Amino acid sequence: MTATLPPPERPEIDAIVEMIIYLYTESRRLTKGMASGFGLTGPQLTILKLLESFQDLSLSTLSERIRAQNSTVTGIVDRMEREGLVRRERSKADRRVVHIRLSEKGARLAREIQVEPMEIFRSALLSLSSADLRDLLRILTKLQRQVVARVGQGGQKKSDGDGT
């Protein structure tokens, strides 16, 4: 049985939760709209831009970065590979590891997509002072730790020990 949380005692908690949900939703909306303009899904665009930044990533690292299961990312990468946007290469150091890299077509498309939600957030953060940025990072890191402690790294709600 799932425990019911008591209502927040402070109105600022609701305001903060609403702001976090707004920022998340707006980021997803922008990504989806931008992606569809290029014939991509939101996750495909995210992978495209990650690979543009990091050149190559293993499937497990991609999964961690976009907070998705390996099987989900495998399906996304399969479609991107069929469309000629990425290619798989076995690691020379460890044959069990497969690196995902942009193809020339994928690299051209990634360069063509200039604006992304992360850039919008980055530019908005530039208006904050260094001290505010440090405070925000410190607070968000604490919040992230608390959320992970409650739901676990994979996004699944942690069991309370009684099988639920």
UniProtKB/TrEMBL annotation:
Domain HTH marR-type: 1-145
Protein source organism: Sorangium cellulosum (Polyangium cellulosum)
The name this protein goes by in its record: MarR family transcriptional regulator
Record-linked Pfam families: MarR
Keyword Transcription regulation: yes
InterPro entries noted in UniProt: HTH_MarR-typ, Tscrpt_reg_MarR-type_CS, WH-like_DNA-bd_sf, WH_DNA-bd_sf
GO molecular function, one term: DNA binding
Keyword Transcription belongs to the record: yes
Keywords: DNA-binding, Transcription, Transcription regulation
